Amino acid sequence: ELPETWADMQEPLLEGMCFTLKYLGMTLRCLVSPHCQARVGARKFQKVILTVSPRGISLQDADTKEMVENISIYRISYCTTDKLQNKVFAYVAQSQESGALECHAFLSPKKKIAQAVTLTVAQAFQMALDLWETAHAGR
Question: Which residue windows are transmembrane per the record (predicted)?
Answer without folding.
Answer: none
